[in-house]
Design brief:
The chain has nine helices and no strands. By secondary structure, the protein is an all-alpha fold. The termini are far apart.
């Protein structure tokens, strides 16, 4: 049994940290787009527009029922063979698209549950004063649903950050890809991947602390 090469690990830390911005960029972009798409899907699921509801259910079922890695390969390697305009797509864009669609399917169901969880008296009160559906959603329902859904959405963002590590399979040199290249040159795979794991762990812990503060902030109006 050999000892850990701590000097190698310490030297690798700044190298891996240099790719943190790319990891966060992919996660933040995917999260923003997934949040918009998931909100639209959730609202549609609440009001159930004929035909469109069936398509939305199909979308959610597909992206929840297939592995993220398969979806990424489908976008990056598969679709360009049938859609010519996607031949120029790069790995980062494909990863963001894949993460967006995959997580929007899960987030849509969480947002829908939060919307339908708002007390029915709130819906009836909004209708009784003549609000349109858009006004009711914007002023009454969505603000309350946001408080309920926020902790779950932060969990999805944390999961999304960890899932960006799959982008290296599309040729993207992010933290995991950088560790893979460094390990291939030094053959110190354990040390390289341990450094990546620790950095991911620290990022997630920071976000988890932020999540706790967010929950306290959102619940302050309901504290007794």
């Amino acid at each position: 049994m050999r000892a850990l090469d701590l000097d190698y690990m310490l030297g690798l830390v700044p190298v891996i940290l240099g790719y943190v911005p790319l990891t966060l960029f992919m996660a933040v972009m995917a999260m923003l787009m997934a949040l918009i798409l998931a909100s639209m899907l959730a609202v549609e699921r609440v009001f159930r527009v004929p035909v469109l509801d069936w398509l939305v259910m199909l979308f959610i079922s597909f992206f929840r029922g297939t592995p993220l890695l398969v979806q990424l390969f489908l976008f990056y390697y598969g679709l360009p063979q049938v859609l010519a305009f996607l031949t120029q797509i790069n790995g980062v864009t494909a990863a963001i698209m894949g993460l967006t669609l995959h997580f929007s399917a899960y987030m849509a169901e969480s947002i829908r549950a939060a919307i339908t969880g708002v007390d029915r008296s709130q819906w009836e009160a909004a209708r009784s004063i003549g609000m349109t559906q858009w006004q009711m959603m914007r002023r009454i329902i969505l603000p309350q649903a946001t408080r309920v859904a926020a902790p779950t959405l932060v969990n999805y963002f944390i999961d999304m950050i960890k899932s960006t590590s799959l982008a290296f399979t599309l040729g993207v040199t992010e933290m995991m890809g950088a560790a893979q290249k460094e390990a291939a040159g030094s053959f110190l795979y354990f040390e390289a991947f341990l450094v990546v794991a620790i950095i991911y762990w620290i990022i997630v812990e920071v976000l988890s602390q932020g999540q706790k503060r967010l929950e306290i902030f959102l619940n302050r109006a309901y504290a007794r």
